[in-house]
Amino acid sequence: MNGDAAYPVSVRSLLPVETLDLVFESLARSELLPVLRSNSLFHRVGARVLYRSLIDLQPTQAVDLLKTVAHSDLYASYVRHVEFDWRTSVLTANFLRLLNRALRRLKFLLTLTLEFPTTDDTGGTASVLNGCTFSLRSFTTSIRCDPTLVRFLETQNDIIDLCLRGINYIETVPLPPEALPQLSHFRTVLSWPTLIANFIRGRPVEGVSMSVYQQEIHSALDALLLSSKPIKRLTLMPFEATDPISLLSAIASRLPWLEALHLVVLSVRFHAPFMQDVLIEMGCSLSPFEYLKYLTFMAPCTGSVDDEDVVVEVWHKACPTLKTIILPGGVMWALTNGKWVSWNDET
């Protein structure tokens, strides 16, 4: 249905507004700006496209858009997706107040990413969320998990995907049991088992990505058992030297129902001949998995691992449910018509 009937005949389009919307979405931001100046109809449709997703912006561009949104309910009503990255910027109190004014106008925002400098004490930056009334589906931030951030999260009943990238303390502010009732994917960087347990306990979390210190791995894995649903997807990256064989065994003993597992061990460099032995031995730890389909193991390796197909066959024999495997070389192996084929073979 054409939505431009309210406009004078001279500025009406032969195309429906919905079609114009699709056309304008294919334009780059620099190409879209002149369109907004064409006529009132194009301005209205183009502005809706321009402000729908505020992403991939330079800091100066982001500030200009924030100033516009902070003074316009119309433009603010178009915004659904925001990604602001100020990790390399110097933030002032005036800027944080401007950001807060703009965010409070975004009543229909669904996805929000806020990255602040991690070299500063970012605890005070959570104040930019005070007074916000939007209901997010996805939230990513480097803000520390302080009382202000927790109070904000208590208001977010629709968040499905949460990523906390801040440098958090060992002791964390308790999250009320009724908060984040829809949370299903949780990602955290530089956090402790106490924080992981705080956000997973009693919530329907099925996918987790976490980076942990070696001495905290077992406690972090135990925290995953607090979810009200079985964890199906896990990405784990230890910060320190970790034996991949014992690590895999620790995961399998706690989470035998995993469907996807991605292990990234960057702190140990293996020599190719030794890596081959490690990979073969890791197969013994795969048998407890009953539903595992997708397995990735990444680790630095000097030289290339010979006979990856042998490793793949050993892993599949130990875990028959496997469908795809990615080994340290980065090549993906897939089970096709009963035979393991590498991506390199297909190309």
Main sheet overview: 13 strands, mixed
- Give the total of beta strands: 15
Shape: globular
Structural class: alpha/beta
Gap between N and C termini, in Å? 46 Å
Q: What does this protein structure show overall?
A:
- This protein has 347 residues and is an alpha/beta fold.
- Helix content is 35%, strand content 18%.
- The protein contains 13 helices and 15 strands.
- The protein has helices at residues 17-25, 29-36, 40-52, 59-70, 73-78, 93-105, 147-154, 193-200, 217-224, 244-254, 272-282, 308-318, 343-346, and strands spanning 53-54, 81-85, 111-115, 138-141, 161-164, 185-188, 207-212, 233-238, 260-264, 270-271, 294-298, 301-302, 324-326, 332-336, 339-342.
- The strands form two sheets. It has a 13-stranded mixed beta sheet.
- Helix 1 packs across helix 3 and helix 2 (29-36) runs antiparallel to helix 3.
- The longest helix has 13 residues, at 40-52.
- The protein is globular.
- It starts with 16 loop residues before the first helix and ends with a helix.
- Mean pLDDT is 86; it is low at 7-11.
What is the element layout, followed by pairings?
Layout (H helix, E strand, L loop, with lengths): L16 H9 L3 H8 L3 H13 E2 L4 H12 L2 H6 L2 E5 L7 H13 L5 E5 L22 E4 L5 H8 L6 E4 L20 E4 L4 H8 L6 E6 L4 H8 L8 E6 L5 H11 L5 E5 L5 E2 H11 L11 E5 L2 E2 L5 H11 L5 E3 L5 E5 L2 E4 H4 L1
Parallel strand pairs: 1-2, 2-3, 3-4, 4-5, 5-6, 6-7, 7-8, 8-9, 9-11, 10-12, 11-13
Antiparallel strand pairs: 13-14, 14-15
Spell out the key features of this protein:
347 residues, alpha/beta, 13-stranded mixed beta sheet, two-stranded parallel ribbon, globular
